[in-house]
């Protein structure tokens, strides 16, 4: 993490007051939460519409912070303390992270996409760790606040940083890309998330493609070559970066030849060699994420034949295609972290393809932020269910009711059950599970369907 004297900070960001009495004080790390101050931190307070972190500055210093920023339009900065006056504390945080990134010799891998960012981040970091010291975005620190904090947490001797870049509007990823200055970028896919904000998949693709705006000279752009919105746009690319693609089609740089889904994960072979690779996670979409990660690792000199070692140690962020046992011996695919029509269809296709179960149940909830066509998106998920492979569909939420309506067009009504009360859903669901049952649980994060998983596990 960043370790600099206050004197050095005056060179890395614009400080408006006299700090000579404190210029030899060293800060170690940055915190924006006064409740989580560690000794030596620089505390960065934010002034919001409903709260103001400046009122916690003195307490943060008492708790061990070495210094704190202070926004100039906030009155009465405390006297006699190591306070650094700035125009805007958020902009100062971003300026500091940009300066720190420029001082490091670290290579940066930037990741974006509608789905699969975090899984791809975890896979990429694991593969690169076979030969390098790697740090990655923790949690969901992928926005205009989270990315600067991620950069400021980098150790001086880190070889490669793997960072997520998220967005909700045009222009946001361009800002992040120019801040992080990635050497390699990857775009996992273009889905329907953020349709509510951006209006069309074309605009979503435009927003995701902003990640190339900050790429270093002679870098690498990796993208899903099966997505026309990406391929068509990048066919006109005139920059110095190399383009590589992954996907199902043999037109891609890297593609799977054979795929097998098993209880303990996914196996596949690729067009580059004959060995079988094994992922401890389910889903063809995760194999495609792995292919993108493999291209990045190979770019940094890691041979394909070594990559199974990296996959074997993979620990994905929880609630992403996580296969867990239930209390009756049933198997549960916990994919409750997030959902879009693309990822929902991929998860349902996986359940449809898995063998060895006498009963398969889908528990599906609302997919959020889909804009004016949200009802149709939900209905189409239900109407696309394979009646020969799926025994029951349980839905949760108001929009989940449209999934149920669609499912009733292909399944008998007694095999489709819609709820707006989670407790009632769980009570009925438990009546239908046993040791030969497979249950998929998936919805947007706000629906908290992991609570269904936890109850089934009791």
Could you write a compact summary of the structure shown?
The protein is an alpha/beta fold. The chain is built from 16 helices and 21 strands. The chain folds into three domains: 3-96, 3-Layer(aba) Sandwich (Udp-n-acetylmuramoylalanyl-d-glutamate--2,6- Diaminopimelate Ligase, Chain: A, domain 1); 104-312, UDP-N-acetylmuramoyl-L-alanine:D-glutamate ligase, CATH 3.40.1190; 322-457, Mur ligase, C-terminal domain (Protein-Tyrosine Phosphatase, Chain A), CATH 3.90.190.
Please provide a written account of the structure.
The structure is a single chain. The protein has 458 residues and is an alpha/beta fold. The protein folds into three domains: 3-96, Udp-n-acetylmuramoylalanyl-d-glutamate--2,6- Diaminopimelate Ligase, Chain: A, domain 1 (3-Layer(aba) Sandwich), CATH 3.40.1390; 104-312, Mur-like, catalytic domain (UDP-N-acetylmuramoyl-L-alanine:D-glutamate ligase, 3-Layer(aba) Sandwich); 322-457, Protein-Tyrosine Phosphatase, Chain A, CATH 3.90.190. Helices cover 32% and strands 21% of the residues. It has helices at residues 6-12, 57-62, 89-103, 117-128, 146-152, 172-180, 195-198, 201-209, 228-234, 284-299, 307-312, 341-353, 374-383, 400-407, 422-430, 450-457, and strands spanning 3-5, 26-28, 30-31, 42-43, 67-71, 83-86, 107-112, 134-136, 160-164, 184-187, 220-224, 242-246, 256-262, 265-270, 277-279, 322-325, 331-335, 359-365, 392-396, 416-419, 437-442. The strands form five sheets. It has a six-stranded parallel beta sheet, sandwiched between helices. Strands 16-17-21-18-19-20 form a six-stranded mixed beta sheet, sandwiched between helices. Strands 3-4-5-6 form a four-stranded parallel beta sheet. Helix 3 (89-103) crosses helix 5 (146-152), helix 4 packs across helix 10 and helix 13 (374-383) packs parallel to helix 14 (400-407). The longest helix is centred in the middle third of the chain and has 16 residues, at 284-299. The protein is globular. The protein starts with a strand and ends with a helix. The model has no long low-confidence stretch (mean pLDDT 94).
């Amino acid at each position: 993490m960043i370790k600099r004297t206050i004197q050095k900070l005056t060179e890395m960001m614009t400080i408006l007051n006299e700090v000579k009495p404190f210029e030899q004080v060293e800060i170690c790390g940055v915190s924006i939460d006064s409740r989580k101050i560690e000794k030596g931190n620089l505390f960065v307070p934010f002034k919001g519409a409903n709260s103001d972190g400046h009122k916690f500055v003195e307490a943060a210093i008492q708790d061990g912070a070495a210094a704190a920023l202070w926004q100039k339009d906030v009155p009465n900065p405390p006297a006699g303390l190591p306070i650094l006056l700035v125009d805007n504390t958020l902009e100062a945080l971003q300026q500091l992270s940009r300066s720190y990134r420029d001082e490091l010799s670290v290579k940066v891998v930037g990741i974006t996409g509608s789905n699969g960012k975090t899984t791809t981040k975890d896979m990429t970091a694991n593969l690169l760790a076979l030969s390098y010291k790697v740090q990655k975005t923790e949690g969901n620190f992928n926005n205009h606040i989270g990315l600067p904090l991620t950069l400021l947490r980098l150790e001086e001797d880190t070889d490669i940083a793997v960072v997520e870049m998220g967005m909700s509007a045009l222009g946001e990823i361009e800002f992040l890309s120019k801040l992080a200055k990635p050497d390699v970028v990857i775009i996992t896919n273009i889905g329907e998330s953020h349709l509510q904000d951006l209006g069309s998949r074309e605009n979503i693709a435009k927003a995701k493609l902003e990640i190339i705006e900050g790429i270093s000279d002679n870098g690498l752009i990796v993208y899903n070559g099966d997505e026309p919105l990406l391929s068509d746009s990048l066919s006109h690319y005139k920059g110095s970066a190399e383009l590589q693609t992954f996907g199902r089609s043999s037109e891609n740089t890297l593609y799977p030849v054979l795929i097998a889904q098993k209880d303990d994960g996914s196996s596949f072979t690729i067009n580059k060699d004959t060995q079988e690779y094994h992922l401890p996670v389910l889903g063809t979409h995760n194999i495609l994420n792995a292919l993108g990660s493999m291209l990045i690792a190979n770019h940094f000199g890691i041979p394909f034949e070594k990559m199974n070692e990296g996959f074997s140690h993979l620990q994905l962020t929880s609630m992403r295609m996580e296969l867990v046992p239930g209390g009756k011996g049933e198997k549960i695919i916990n994919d409750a972290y997030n959902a879009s029509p693309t990822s929902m269809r991929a998860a349902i296709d996986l359940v449809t393809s898995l063998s060895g179960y006498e009963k398969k149940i889908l528990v599906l909830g609302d997919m959020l932020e889909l804009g004016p066509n949200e009802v149709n998106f939900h209905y189409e998920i239900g109407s696309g269910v394979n009646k020969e492979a799926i025994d029951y569909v349980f839905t949760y939420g108001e929009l989940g009711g449209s999934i149920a309506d669609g499912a009733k067009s292909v399944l008998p009504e007694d095999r489709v059950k819609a709820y707006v009360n989670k407790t009632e859903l769980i009570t009925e669901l438990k009546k239908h599970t046993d040791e030969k049952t497979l249950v998929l649980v998936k919805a947007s994060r706000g629906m908290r369907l992991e609570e269904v998983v936890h109850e089934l596990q009791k």
